[in-house]
Design brief:
This protein is α/β, with parallel strands linked by helices and about 300 residues long. The protein has nine helices and eleven strands. The longest helix has 23 residues.
C-alpha cells in the first residue's frame, strides 16, 4: 500500500510553475483606441502589433470605467479601486497601492519599487493616504527633466533597472497626451509612434538583462483615452464617459502569460492590480478588481 502511494505521488508533475519575479507597468498616457488597436492597419503602433502582441496576450475590450484623467487613471491602476482625485498632483490615492501592499507583506526596501516619470505630478503615486499604509511603505520616485520626452523616460527606466534592480515599476510615458493637448494631430500620432518604438526597445532591454530576462512580466496599458471626433473638443482632450475616453488597451507579456492571444473578454483598469499581486505572490486586500485569469498559462499536468 505504501509503495502504491509513493508511486502515485510521482506519476503526475506540474510543468508550469510561476516564473515571474518582477513586474513593469507601462502607461502610454492618453491615446485613443481608434489610433491604437482600433485601427485595423495599426498605422501608429507597428511594434506593439507586429513584434510584441504575438509574444503576449492583448485585451481589446479593456476599459477605464472611473475618472478618465491622468492621476485618477494611474491611481486606479495601482490601487485596484476607482480613484477620483485632483489632477494637479495635490492629492494622493486614498487606498493602498501595489507598492505599499508589496513592501508591507514582503518586508522590502523603498528601492524595490519605483515610480518612473513622466509627468512630475504623478509622484503622488508613491504612496496613499490610507492609515494602515502610507509613507513608510512608499515607492521611490525617478523624475524626468522633460515630461514630454518619452526617450528620456525610457532612459530613466534603464537607469533605475541597472542601479536599483527594482521588482515593481510603474512608468508614465507622457508624450502622447501632452502633444494631443497641444491640439496637433500630427504631433500626437508621431508621439504615439515614438512610444510604440520605445516599448520594443524596453522589452529588449528586459530580455537582455540577466536579472530580468524570462523573469519579468510587462503590462502596457493606458490611463485614459480621448474624446471621439465630434464630441466636445475631439482628440484634444478627455475626462468624460464617452467611448473614446473610456476604451483603452492592455497588452501583457511575460513568462507566465500565453503568447499570440487576443482576448475580447471585458476587463477594467482596476483588474490590473490584483493580477500583478498574483504574479508577485502577495495580496491586495482593498482591491475591487478581479484577477485576469487568462493572463496566466494554465497549469498542465503530465504523466511521467
Amino acid at each position: 500500500m505504501k509503495k502504491c502511494l509513493f508511486v502515485l505521488l510521482f506519476v503526475f508533475t506540474s510543468v508550469s510553475a510561476q516564473l515571474t519575479e518582477n513586474v513593469f507597468i507601462i502607461v502610454i498616457d492618453g491615446p485613443r483606441y481608434s489610433e491604437t488597436y482600433g485601427d485595423s492597419n495599426h498605422t501608429y503602433i507597428p511594434n506593439l502589433w507586429l513584434a510584441l502582441r504575438p509574444q503576449g496576450i492583448l485585451y481589446t475590450n479593456f476599459y477605464n470605467n472611473g475618472t478618465t484623467k491622468t492621476n485618477s487613471g494611474h491611481s486606479s491602476i495601482l490601487s485596484g479601486t476607482w480613484q477620483s482625485i485632483k489632477n494637479d498632483g495635490s492629492e494622493k490615492p486614498s487606498m493602498p497601492t501595489l507598492f505599499e501592499c508589496y513592501r508591507k507583506q514582503v518586508d522590502t526596501s523603498a528601492s524595490s519599487c519605483f515610480v518612473v516619470l513622466g509627468k512630475k505630478k504623478l509622484d503622488v503615486l508613491a504612496y496613499s493616504t490610507h492609515p494602515d499604509y502610507g509613507y513608510q511603505y512608499a515607492a521611490s520616485v525617478k523624475y524626468s527633466e522633460k515630461e514630454e520626452d518619452d526617450c528620456l523616460t525610457l532612459e530613466n527606466i534603464k537607469d533605475v533597472m541597472q542601479t536599483y534592480r527594482p521588482k515593481l515599476i510603474i512608468a508614465n510615458f507622457a508624450g502622447v497626451d501632452i502633444a494631443a493637448h497641444d491640439e496637433d494631430f500630427e504631433s500626437y500620432t508621431n508621439k504615439l509612434k515614438i512610444a510604440d518604438s520605445l516599448m520594443w526597445v524596453l522589452w529588449n532591454l528586459i530580455q537582455n538583462d540577466s536579472i530580468y530576462q524570462n523573469k519579468t512580466t510587462l503590462f502596457i496599458t493606458n490611463d485614459h483615452g480621448r474624446h471621439l471626433d465630434r464630441i466636445k473638443t475631439g482628440f484634444h482632450d478627455h475626462g468624460d464617459d464617452c467611448e473614446g475616453c473610456r476604451h483603452i488597451s492592455l497588452l501583457i507579456l511575460g513568462p507566465d502569460t500565453p503568447a499570440g492571444v487576443i482576448d475580447s473578454t471585458f476587463y477594467e483598469q482596476i483588474d490590473i492590480a490584483p493580477t500583478v499581486a498574483k504574479l508577485l505572490k502577495f495580496e491586495m486586500p482593498y482591491s475591487k478588481g478581479k484577477i485576469i485569469e487568462s493572463a496566466f498559462i494554465k497549469e498542465k499536468i503530465l504523466e511521467e
